[in-house]
Amino acid sequence: MIPVEFDYVKVTSIDQALAALKSGGEDAKVISGGQSLLPVLRLRMAAPSVLVDCGSIDEMIGVRDEGDSITIGAATTHHGVMSNALVQKHALLLAQATATVADPAIRHRGTTGGALAHADPAGDVPAAALALNTSFVIAGPGGRRTVAAKDFFLDYFTTAVGPDEILVSFSVPKCDWGSHYSKFSRTAQAWAIVGVAAVVNVQGGVIKEARIGLTNMAPTAVRASTVEAALVGASSPADITAAAMHAADGTRATSDLHAQADYREHLARVITARAVRAASGI
Amino acid sequence: MTAVLETDTAFGKPIRRKEDARLLHGQTNWADNIQLPGTVHMAILRSPMAHAKITKLDVSGALKQPGVVAAYGAKELGDLNGGVPCVWPVTDDIKMPAFPALAIDKVRQVGDCVAVVLGTSVAAAVDALDSIEVSYEQLPAVTNMEAALESGSALVHDEIETNACYVYKMPCGDYEASRAKADVVVAKRFINQRLIPTFMEPRSVVAAPMGMSDEITIWSSTQIPHVLRVLLALVTGIPENNLRVVAPDVGGGFGGKLQCYREEILVTNLAKKLGRPVKWTETRSENMVATHHGRDLIQDIEIAATKDGKILGLKVTLLANMGAYLQIITPGVPLLGMFMYPAIYKMDSYDFTCTGVFTNKTPTDAYRGAGRPEATYAIERIVDELAAEIGMEPMELRKKNWIKHDEFPFTTVAGLTYDTGNYEAATEKALAMFDYDGLRAEQAQRRASGDQVQLGIGISTYTEMCGLAPSRTLGALKYVAGGWEHCTVRALPTGKIEVVTGTSPHGQGHETAWSQIASSILGVPVEDIEVIHGDTGRAPYGMDTYGSRSLAVGGQAIKAASERLVEKARVIAAHQLECSASDLEFINGSFQVKGDPSKTQALGAVAFEAFTAHNLPPGVEPTLQGEATIDPGDFSYPHGTHLAAMEVDTETGQVKLRKYVCVDDVGLQVNPMIVTGQVHGGVAQGIAQALFEGAEYDDDGNLLTASLADYLIPSAADLPSFETGSTVTPSTTHPLGTKGVGEAGTIASTPAIINGIVDALRHLGVTEVAMPASPQTVWRTIQAAKGGAK
After folding, report:
1. CATH number of the domain enclosing B546
2. From A103, which residue of chain B is nearest by alpha-carbon distance?
3. In-domain check, residue B536
4. Rounded Cα gap, residues B379 and B482, in angstroms
5. Which residue of A265, B116, B638, B697 shows the fewest CB atoms closer than 10 Å?
6. CA atoms within 13 A on the CB side of B105
């Protein structure tokens, strides 16, 4: 299909972007890689009056070492993120999750910040961002603010980023724990039926702490906090399997063509155990 | 045949496809690339409902929109609202309801065309669709074939007072007698699900009045330019000699472009009415609902056998989903499968019944294999279930019942005579490549240890009928066309060759393969041969491309036309060389006087003599060409053995293919590289039916899998590296010894996968897995077998 007619503004600074969003009003929409937005426009499921292209704002591209954390510009492509040495060293889980997004062509155009702001419950990156305690820098008319991961994802395709705001970057505290992202999907390019993002701190063969993010088990990515608590002290595959039995606790899995809710819940338990075992080496 | 093979020619060489550079770079004339001055673009308002009365339709609002040239509903279109034709009335009493291009008063499928807007740009036309006022009164949708046949069901077509389109029966022998004699009768119901032929290039059609004559030229992304020309002439009333249909390079079809679509009728009629070029290219969303679908059968299969595994008889009872309307060969597709249910097996009786059923879904029609994949799936599945029932190794059961290589030619219980085959040889080779015994040992070990991942081994020993088709046979089946093919081979004055054929490729590599055939006969290098195809203006006669016929039938015509050219050239050369024609040998593109190698004349020189005509023998006409129209003597019958090994994760239900071995016997191979490519693509598409693809509707007749996000087609990342091999048993009914390969992989692979999944789980009590065998489906099947049914 052909999108409904819209205006297009390409900006090169955050200030320009905010000004363009303001003048565009509530129908203005930010675009960078366009890999989620353009299909929506072509299917005429959305009809923004103006697209503000933030894909060329220098500040929003690239990865910086900030000492205790790394900061990733929101318009850095998936490929740029997954192949970045800082990400691979300090936020491996993010690289692992990003590497499962769609296919190489999409990963070279689509941006990780865009995927986070899009907040598709079946998207792979939000669960990893949750597990890594990511924080988000949002610029708006009133200046900049930082939002913690737990406060960022609000609902289906809804985040703390307001219509007159823009996600500038996100920061990941450096994490050298074992990590794994396990994506269960029907084809390599399909969305996750369930995904599990796990980082696990293992000392002397015993799990000291674990953080687990779940993909597609609720209207947003969620933490499997009951599993995280149950994993503390786990030292055997049986311990992990037992802890993972809580993976669906408190989730709100939906039913669709590829999986009914009960099957999703079952998968969450199985895949969580596998992801934690892979991350922990236990 | 022997002349081709005895010399070192291009025939049989794995030559790189000469058409690939332009196809892979997209630097070619796809229909949508054709830009004519003054073109208007058509956009279509489609029904969002499966079954509804159109209570209001007013297109006048669209006419007021910028850039809009015209807008029509059925009423405004009047006589130009042509009906989509069906050319295969399979029985005398078949119900053939009208299928107007634009729906009249009622819509019967999601995607039915309700109105069209023509604008100076695609955007203008699409935007103006919103200004059409339309309202519907929803009617109950007919979505379930069995319910559709019950009295009191809502009717798809009120005027025919039933949802039954036809009942076709073919009793062969006395099945009831076989059943009475049998120790074992196994009955199963298989659902051969609905599929969408997901070709890469969407449909696109441009029609343009050509100005200097009454001719209208139609460029369409079609498999059938010649048949389309005839049908468009009949439907539109435009004289056939004023229509030229061109299939430019076509990006895939799989049968989905074997059609005379309503959009092609609309574009043609509107180009004539408006006197300017009209163009329409479908979106992928339109493609999913409005391109014809494939498969969609309920198959009740019963097999009768002795307890030691001798098959006695087979009973096949089908419900075939026609969808909302009949398109070009909708009713006939199950009959293309009808002959193949007995497959490679000997038996006393076979009873076939098929009921065609109307529903409020997209019409079905030919999709890669058309009838034969369905038949092969059913027989190969039921043979496995029979083996399990009597406790026999499934390959041993097959060996016990198949036609042995020294029994050919063999007339099957269904009445076909298979010319050649060697199932033993193909199977032996496949088993060796597969390490069958080693995998069986691993399977036993995994079962014994209760491994969470079980190993399955799936077998498919298939045959098929292709090379469509002997015209006489098609006539007997009430198909309203022949199955011959035409070719003209011209030697141009400079010695270059034009091969003009009535069949045309849509990605298969025929330009190369056909050139190889002509090259091997004419002794002219492949690169000096230009193949001209897909254009009724340049190739006046043809029956086009489907049913694995372009090489098997089209190749025969190229061979015959090339040989006729050589015979004419021989007479001219003899005159030039002052000898008798019978004294000439034709070697590597040159005539040579036997016993005197100094006296030669190259074919190119003969072509020049024929062109100048200064010194031709008496009675010989100028120009050098050969022409042939060949009606094949019979179908051809490729066969082979496919073996699949897969790991089934019993915790998640996920199936991971580990190994896929296939040995196909497609007769002599003109280009083994192209053959292998066809097998790869075909196998992938058959696996896709088994594991990934399925068009699903809700009870209101909405297509749920209406995008490629939900209708899953696998990529290379989802498939193992196929291990292909071949045996060569030349066809004796086809002069080239070839059989056809376009559909073989698709026909063979689906049952191999499902047989493998059932094999992996049989010890858990699983005897059937529905297609597509998604992880959830497999997991639920395991749960149900365990007694924890969900």
Report:
1. 3.30.365.10
2. B717
3. yes
4. 29
5. A265
6. 3
Q: How far apart are CA B604 and CA B494, in angstroms?
A: 6
Report d(CA B704, CA B695) in Å as an integer: 7
> Both B624 and B488 in a single domain?
yes
Which 263-282 residues of chain A touch chain B by CB within 8 A? 263, 266-267, 270-271
Q: Which domain holds residue B571?
A: 2-27+469-630
Number of domains forming the structure of chain B: 3
Q: Do B646 and B784 lie in a common domain?
A: yes
Inter-residue contact A130 to A227 (CB < 8 Å): no
What domains does chain A contain, in order, with CATH numbers?
A: 7-53 (3.30.43.10), 63-173 (3.30.465.10), 178-280 (3.30.390.50)
Give me the average pLDDT of each 10-residue run along chain B (790 residues): 58 95 89 96 98 98 98 97 96 98 98 98 97 98 98 97 98 98 98 97 97 93 98 97 96 97 98 97 97 98 98 98 98 97 98 98 97 98 98 98 98 97 98 96 98 98 93 92 96 96 94 97 96 95 92 95 97 96 95 93 97 96 97 95 98 98 97 97 98 98 96 95 97 93 96 98 97 98 80
Question: Is the residue at B731 inside a domain?
Answer: yes
Please tell me whether residue A197 adopts helix, strand or coil conformation.
strand
Contact A184 B652 (CB under 8 A): yes
Does the CB of B621 have a partner CB in chain A at under 8 Å?
A: no
For A149-161, what is the mean pLDDT? 97
Cβ contact B776–A259 (<8 Å) = yes
- Residue A9, pLDDT above cutoff 90: yes
| Six token digits for residue A187 | 């084809």
What are the tokens at B55?
A: 């209570």
pLDDT at B664: 98
Q: How far apart are CA B740 and CA B632, in angstroms?
A: 13
Same domain for B650 and B725: yes
pLDDT recorded at residue B3: 43
For residue range A183-211, list pLDDT tens digits in order. 999 999 999 999 999 999 999 999 999 99
A43 closest CB neighbour out of B285, B654, B713: B285
Interface of A with B in 207-266 (CB under 8 A): 257-260, 262-263, 266
Tell me the chain A residues in contact with residue B713 when contact means C-beta distances shorter than 8 Å.
187
Q: Residue B151 falls within a domain, yes or no? A: no
Q: Strand B278-281 relative to strand B294-305: parallel, antiparallel, unpaired?
A: unpaired
Shared domain for B620 and B644, answered yes or no, is no
Q: Name the DSSP letter for residue B293.
A: B
Closest CA to A191 of A252, A115, A244: A115
- Min Cα–Cα distance to chain B from A263, Å: 7
Interface of A with B in 94-113 (CB under 8 A): 103
A23 touches B: beta carbon within 8 Å? no
Among B705, B718, B775, the residue with its CB nearest the CB of A257 is B705
| CA of B777 vs chain A CAs: smallest distance (Å) | 9
Q: Is A122 on the interface with B (CB under 8 A)?
A: no
The beta-carbon neighbor of B776 closest among A187, A191, A263 is: A263
Residues B682, B769, single domain; the answer is yes
Query: Nearest to residue B296, comparing CAs of B210, B186, B196?
Result: B196
CB distance A1–B285 less than 8 Å? yes
CATH code for the domain of B243: 3.90.1170.50
Percent of residues, chain A, with pLDDT higher than 90: 98
Flag if B123 and A186 touch (Cβ within 8 Å): no
Count of all residues that appear for chain A in the document:
282
- B193 reaches A (C-beta below 8 A): no
Task: Give me the interface pTM, i.e. the ipTM.
Answer: 0.97
Indicate if B685 and B773 belong to the same structural domain: yes
